[in-house]
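Hi support team,

I submitted a single chain yesterday and got back a structure, but I'm not sure I'm reading the token output correctly. Could someone confirm the output below corresponds to the sequence I sent? I've pasted both exactly as they appear in my results page.

Thanks,
R.
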Amino acid sequence: MKAKAVFDIFAEINKVPRPSKHEEKICEWLIQFAKEHQLEYEYMPIAEGATTGNILMRKPATAGYEDHPTVVLQAHMDMVCEKNADCPINFETDPIETYIEDGWLHAKGTTLGADDGIGMAMMLAILTDEEAAHPALEALFTTDEETGLTGAFCLQPGVIRGKRLINLDSEDHGQIFIGCAGGVDTLAHLYYTEEAAPEGYFAATIQISGLMGGHSGDDINKGRGNANKLLTRILFRLMKETDLRIAQINGGNLRNAIAREAQATILVPMAYKEQMRVSFNIVSAELEAEYGEVEKDLKTALESAEKPATVLPKAVSDKLILALYACPHGMVKMSSAIPGLTQTSTNLASVKIKADEKGKYIEINTSQRSSVESEKHAIKDVVEAALALSGAEVFHGDGYPGWTPNINSPLLEATKNAYIQLFGEEPRVLAIHAGLECGLFLEKYPDLDMVSVGPQMTGVHSPLEKLSIESTEQTYAWLKQTLLAL
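Hi R., thanks for writing in. Yes, this is the structure output for that exact sequence:
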């Protein structure tokens, strides 16, 4: 491998559990790495007494670059933890198991963690490469990017000294990103008091599986199925035709991943048992016809189930189905200023039954993104309106700002020229619909000049995630060439 050090370090990173909000072990590993390689480092807990936090490593300039301005390299240390239903891996204790196939690095049944473990690996490889020439470097590793941008929110002004930052959290080789969407989460809690399951009813489980899923930013415009929406479509038809009761519902996992699997345990009158199968088959055939070209592994299943003791009240069940069916999902608007860029979207991420001191409730988790701040708030209000129809308590997260492009960036020019020198062609300069930490950095460091680059990945935020080996080698060479020019 041309970038053997990068892959060796990435392999070590993937031995260390690092789910979002549980980065204690990767923090310890990074600190030990800095000590072993005699790198200056600073650990910044996200709160007093916290066991996770941001880590900043520093390395002096190499000979001849002492008078060049400091460059900041940045990646996040957490990973999205998604796995197939039959995968036994525990993300809080087990390593990620990887293999190579057709020039791509994959994981066995789980997300690979190249988002953003490969960015971390490139930074650490640069810091330990004695032959690489570069200005003084600051390597910033942030925590909990995937579920709250916590590390970026907690980064204090004055911590980093450099005024040029290269973010290594992009997933398309040969592209330089200079802007990103802002985002906000919208959640609903629908409380209920369960009641005894009615007599004379037949119990069944409906399952949606085999969907591609993916990143709710990068993949939201690709027409992929959302398991929560497909399940709701079946439930809506059955609700209109008979006295449907819901006993259990569980769909999706993470707010920034498109739901790949969903299931519900339902009850219908015994007399409707056969008609339920007919209706299920009709909707399943419709879904296969509509999504067959994109979702080639889509599976719908209806199986008899042991009758549960309790169900949701009829009124709650009906309102839940109506709200989920009304709740929008997917691309809302494309940008008229930047061709091909999704401007606004929303993701119906997960539906779970939970409990707290107030009782049982159904939690509906969604996320909205837009590169136009007013549209971000408009679509979150649309989602709020749909979910409020169920009588649920609806609230929003703090959200995060977008990153406004700067086409006159000197760092952009240097990064473009380095690519041209290496590969003989110009890279594409784009904005991205996914969220990056750069918008938050800019709030605290208004003078930062930033770009974002990365190797080619597909299937990010799903067990289909894979990393191109060749593009990783090329991106690492590109990073080194850029540092030479700075």
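A quick pointer for reading it: The two ends are 26 Å apart (CA to CA). Let us know if anything else looks off.

Best,
Support desk
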